[in-house]
Design a protein that fits this description.
This is YfcC family protein. By secondary structure, the protein is mainly α. It has 2 domains: 59 residues, no CATH class; 164 residues, no CATH class. It contains 12 helices and 2 strands. Strands 1-2 form a two-stranded antiparallel sheet. α1 crosses α2, α5 runs antiparallel to α9 and α6 packs across α7.
Amino acid sequence: MQAQPEKKRHRFKMPSAFTILFIIIIIIAVLSWFIPAGKYSTDSSGNLIANTYHTVKSNPQGLWDVVMSPVYGMVGDKNTDGAISVSLFILVIGGFLGVVNKTKALDAGISSIVNRYKGREKVLIPILMTLFALGGSTYGMAEETVAFYPLLIPVMMACGFDSIVAVALALVGTSVGNMASTVNPFATGVASQTLGISPGDGLVSRIIFFVIVDVIAIAFVMRYGTKIQKDPTKSYVYAQRKEDWKSFNIDERTNDVEPMTGRQKAVI
């Protein structure tokens, strides 16, 4: 009796980020045909007035609006600002990383950091988190940190941590910085202007709050990082540790890497 050929199973494959975003755009466009539009009245300063919500003429989104929404999201239109500045920043950082990788400066830099902080790798956590927190607190650093992940992940994994620790340095660091915005023009500046007060009012309190939340965040990440250093299997992403290690070529970047040359130091 001839054996029947085994049927090929089609496993679900997670769609790309672009596919998910486009699906969300389509869903929102469809909902615009059914959900009534409305808005609040505002005063002379642009502040919303409570209990003034009222319906307005709907503006259903069609096929052309769906197609053009990524463009408007990038460059903006008369109603909203675009995200072109953040996108360009990430593109520039990506080009920079390409140059750095070409000169092998990143490999030498990672090896140098690992060797210099061998046995005291946890020192990197408060240093880097504080730097990112200062960026968030002073000028609203947030989305820009995406470009730093390819730098942080191999360094922290080579030091015995995992990719979560690497991402947390930038993500948690900038988040607490924005939460305790000291002179952030996009948070404190706008709020001060709305209230009609000086951005310097309450600065001391915000600095104290910044120090407190930064210390708490550092302690949180260091606690998790210490646990991973002692037992890597306790990592929440341990299942993909080998894949991450291979993807970032950490073995090649940390083994038999020659000392940094003057050219590589200049690139870094």
